[in-house]
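Today's session is about reading a structure prediction critically. Students often jump straight to the picture, but the first step is always the sequence itself: look for stretches that repeat, for charged clusters, for runs of hydrophobic residues. Only then move on to the predicted structure, which in these notes is written as discrete structure tokens rather than atom positions. Here is the chain we will use throughout the hour.
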Amino acid sequence: MERASSRAVLQAARTLWNFHLIYDELSEVDVIIGLGSYDLRVADRCAELFHQRLAKKILFTGKSGNWTNNQFDGSEAEAFAKRAWERGVPADAILIEPKATNIGENIRFSRAMMANDQVARIIIVTKPQTQRRAYATVRAQWPEVSALVTAPMTPFEEQPIEAYPFEMFVHEMVGDVQRIRDYPSKGFQIAQSIPASVADAFDFLVKEGYHHHL
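Below is the predicted structure for this chain, in token form.
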């Protein structure tokens, strides 16, 4: 699309992308938690970390959301579990939470599932552009665990896919900046500073029409 190729739009989108990235240094944990979405590369990353022996269990969480109602036969969690199994993760090492419909529920429902397992350390695996939101959510809603956050090592240019093109990708990043700004007052996330450059990119993209995820 013509708008998607605009140099100014690309520059603003990349500014949001860089803000959303976290990529913690990883170490061994009690469980890897993969947040469901359209992006099966998250399941691949979970399988990779499992094979690196960073945890003995993977918990996949997710029902279906705005982008996956027609993408998978079952829930996101079930689709991710199948993908991890195809990548060599044993079925008995996979847990499925198939009801969560947003990141807050991903975290709360995972916390409830692991309540009897004395979980102290976790790795959250999500899409690159939702790392900061996942970090803020787990800090607010599961504060007793030590949580590391990571994602597939996908470059900015390769994050859009045929089922989730550039336009939708930018709408999502814009919406998540708004949630990072507004959700702390609701108790959903911890507060985080939003740099002026990110706020300016957000305002510009909203004016350009990237507001469908607000």
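Discussion point for the tutorial: The chain has a mean pLDDT of 94.
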